[in-house]
Amino acid sequence: xxxxxxxxxxEKALAGRWIxxxxxxDALEITERMNLRNTGSxxxxxxxxxxxxKKSNEALEKYMxxxxxxxxxxxxxxxxxxxxxxxxxxxxxxxxxNYSKIVSHARKxxxxxxxxxxxxxxxxxxxxxxxxxxxxxxxxxxxxxxxRRSLHDVKSLLEEGSIIRLxxxxxxxxxxxxxxxxxxxxxxxxxxxxxxxxxxxxFMVATHDKGLIEKAIKMSKKSEAEISFGMxxxxxxGYAYELAKNHDxxxxxxxxxxxxxxxxxxxKELRNSxxxxxxxxxxx
Length: 284
Ligand SMILES: Cc1cc2nc3c(=O)[nH]c(=O)nc-3n(C[C@H](O)[C@H](O)[C@H](O)COP(=O)(O)OP(=O)(O)OC[C@H]3O[C@@H](n4cnc5c(N)ncnc54)[C@H](O)[C@@H]3O)c2cc1C
Hints:
Layout: H1 3-18, H2 24-36, E1 39-45, H3 53-72, E2 77-81, H4 92-108, E3 113-115, H5 123-132, E4 139-144, H6 150-159, E5 164-167, H7 182-199, E6 202-206, H8 210-220, E7 226-232, H9 237-243, E8 248-255, H10 260-281
Parallel strand pairs: 1-2, 1-8, 2-3, 3-4, 4-5, 5-6, 6-7, 7-8
The protein binds flavin-adenine dinucleotide.
The site of flavin-adenine dinucleotide has 25 residues, from strand 4, strand 7 and helix 10.
């Protein structure tokens, strides 16, 4: 077998740690198990950069089915939708019609809808798409602290009554739009988090960075804000379950066949964290 064949199998096996499986039932079954440990899920149907209307309609149908199933099974679960999965890379109308159908069905079924954030070329339109939908406490948007614009975006989103899920950011970006180092993205995460504690009633701190999580716990003791923690499935589930004994915790749980783009982002982060760990133990 070729090296690429072996690495392909390894990558698929690793992706299996992070992804529930191919079917809705796989994500629901894992959510049931997470719920038993007082932990909710944020279920995402894998798919992005869709340019074919038929495929974006399939994604819409999948989310409608998922929302009904979460409600029927009374699960502690929300959903996460990628803007380019529901039509943003096709045209505005497709995306806004699909998003409004998802949000309105989710409101009826009492399911929370998160809008994921993708590459910065989509940030402006993703925020507009989010704001175009109803915001009655059941929709929220992801904001990436590695983007230079994010502090400003959070301020204006809060004026519109938005709910924020704060992350560091997972895409390759130019230094003109993003901070080039993880340290700067972390510092900006801390600044935005302080702003959220002062100005937001409800938000999610979505990171595996224990320093930031501990900071958030400390700040929450002096705040009325209702905060939750988010982590990606398969990275630090043990820590998430411990945290869930005293806090509101959700694990981001993707399912579906289009695992490659998601798997590669996680693989890149896994490689980075191994490099960081090695550098800590290597002789200076
Ligand atoms: C709930 C949730 C939703 C998200 N939604 C989005 C989104 O919509 N858009 C977006 O751009 N990004 C999203 N992300 C990803 C996020 O932007 C980061 O890329 C990812 O969370 C890693 O950053 P970190 O904050 O954990 O900090 P880092 O500094 O990258 O990592 C902190 C520590 O976590 C551990 N770690 C992190 N990743 C891995 C890994 N793959 N394998 C093993 N250990 C690891 C390591 O110990 C590392 O030192 C989301 C993340 C979460 C938790």
